[in-house]
Automatic annotation (TrEMBL):
Active site residues of this protein: K74 (charge relay system), S149 (charge relay system), S173 (acyl-ester intermediate)
GO CC, alphabetical: glutamyl-tRNA(Gln) amidotransferase complex
Keywords noted in UniProt: ATP-binding, Ligase, Nucleotide-binding, Protein biosynthesis, Transferase
Name of the protein: Glutamyl-tRNA(Gln) amidotransferase subunit A
Catalyzed chemical reaction(s): L-glutamyl-tRNA(Gln) + L-glutamine + ATP + H2O = L-glutaminyl-tRNA(Gln) + L-glutamate + ADP + phosphate + H(+)
Domain Amidase, chain residue ranges per copy: 20-448
NCBIfam families for the chain: gatA (TIGR00132)
Length: 458
């Protein structure tokens, strides 16, 4: 059954919220030791919340739209009374003293937080191998990385350990692991979801978003996650649509007449085996009435350096609070190699004599990329293509930093441009999932949900 069907059955008392939680606790008990998707689980508290929800339903009280649905939360999003470590020794003893805005919204709608998921340390990575608490395995391709940095959230969904998981996406950190683990991940328009309570990687690029095994889980969670927040200066004042309405009608009705763009440069940097799988999905869309448009994006070569230069500087700035005085350890003395690399690079680039040479030029390049992407989207509804250009490597396989960064070449574009983007399973090669990425204009998130629903049903 879909997430939205389960939600309705809980509200109709045909399924108990407590039974839903117990099922996930049992799965976590069986699987998490080998997968390492969750860093912390509070089953008793989740069962107590579920019991309260069941009691409210039984007595005829109104419950929220997420009543009884079970969430896993990435370890860089504040949840009161959970360890919010960002998968780093730096914060291994930090207990969340408040709820992030997204957590407040989930709890208001009676969603149940069962635990905290693993990630790359401070979200600096694309494989979840940089976690201080150990690597997460890929349930869909055991022995391979699950992607990152939200690898624990994707693995928790792929292994059936929760209904919905939250991740953060700075350059593909929701979509990359969604692709590798064969689940659905969605990065909303920048500013659509409050970042209040998120531990920054790069504040001008970060966005919180959901992962789920079916598109209805994405839709129902977006209805709660997308909300204006006066405490977040980047928050949009947007009267967003009811995303569950995007699940209505037939795939043909959603796709017919839509202009769907494919970009030759995206194909050129992608493994042929992945392109072949993506082509089959695109053929399904055109067979059902979509109009295919070929476009060119001549700036793909500058996207990664632009992204990482901005990332380094903003990450360095955001980590200055981890000085070991107020809480945690001094980050430079406790962190892993990748985090330290980014701090050192950010420190170097931030120096006055270099900021104009690197950081300011990167900001100019981002403006150019945003302008060009918006031009491409001006006359089309969607851009479709591969989510990541290569299959996930095996756990423990040594990659140079630039090889690891190459996973992000197709996903950083949406963050640099501030547009919405999602990844949904397109197929698999040698048993390893491959994701289809769908991108749209700012605040056209609804169109992506419609398209992903069509792909799922087709």
């Amino acid at each position: 059954m879909s997430i939205i069907e389960k939600s309705q059955l809980i509200k109709n008392q045909e399924i108990k919220a407590r039974d839903n939680v117990e099922k996930f606790i049992n799965i976590i008990d069986k699987k998490n030791n080998s997968i390492n998707g969750f860093l912390e689980v509070k089953g008793e508290e989740a069962l107590s919340q579920a019991q309260n929800i069941d009691s409210k339903i039984a007595s005829g009280e109104k419950v929220g739209s997420l009543a009884g649905l079970v969430f896993g939360i990435k370890a860089n999003i504040n949840v009161s009374d959970f360890t919010i470590s960002a998968a780093s020794k730096t914060l291994e003893n930090y207990i969340g003293s408040y709820d992030a805005a997204v957590i407040e919204n989930i709890k208001k709608e009676d969603g149940i937080i069962i635990g905290i998921t693993n990630m790359d340390e401070f979200a600096a990575g694309s494989s979840t191998e940089t976690s201080y608490f150990g690597t997460t395995d890929n349930p869909a391709a055991p022995g391979h990385v699950p992607g990152g940095s939200s690898g624990g959230s994707a693995a928790a969904i792929a292994s059936g350990m929760c209904d919905i998981a939250l991740g953060s996406d700075t350059g593909g950190s929701i979509r990359n692991p969604a692709s590798h683990c064969g689940v659905i991940g969605f990065k909303p328009t920048y500013g659509a979801v409050s970042r209040q309570g998120l531990l920054d990687l790069s504040m001008s690029l970060d966005q919180i978003g959901p992962l789920s095994n079916d598109i209805s889980g994405i839709a129902i969670s977006l209805n709660t996650l997308i909300a204006n927040d006066p405490l977040d200066c980047t928050s949009l004042k947007w009267k967003s649509p009811d995303f569950t309405k995007a699940l209505e009608n037939t795939p043909e009705d959603k796709i017919k007449g839509k202009k769907i763009a494919i970009c030759k440069q995206f194909r050129e940097v992608t493994d042929d085996n992945i392109n072949n799988i993506i082509d089959k999905q695109i053929d399904k869309l055109t067979d059902n009435g979509a109009e295919l448009v070929e476009v060119s994006f001549d700036y793909i070569d500058i996207c990664l350096p632009t992204y990482y230069l901005i990332n380094y500087v903003e990450f360095f700035s955001s980590t200055r609070k981890y000085d070991g005085r107020k809480y945690g350890y001094k980050i430079e003395e406790a962190c892993g190699d990748e985090v330290l690399r980014r701090i050192k690079m950010g420190s170097y680039i931030s120096q006055q004599e270099f900021s104009g040479k690197y950081y300011k030029k990167a900001l100019q390049a981002r403006s150019l990329i945003r302008t060009e992407i918006n031009k491409l989207l001006k006359d089309v509804d969607l851009i479709v293509g591969p989510t990541v250009p290569k299959l996930p490597h095996k756990i423990g396989e040594k990659l140079e930093p630039m090889e690891m960064y190459a996973y992000d070449v197709l996903t950083v574009i949406a963050n640099l441009a501030g547009i919405p983007a999602g990844s949904i399973k397109a197929g698999q090669h040698n048993g390893i999932p491959v994701g289809l990425q769908i991108q749209a204009k700012p605040q056209d998130d609804y169109k992506i949900i419609e398209a992903m629903d069509a792909v799922e049903k087709l």
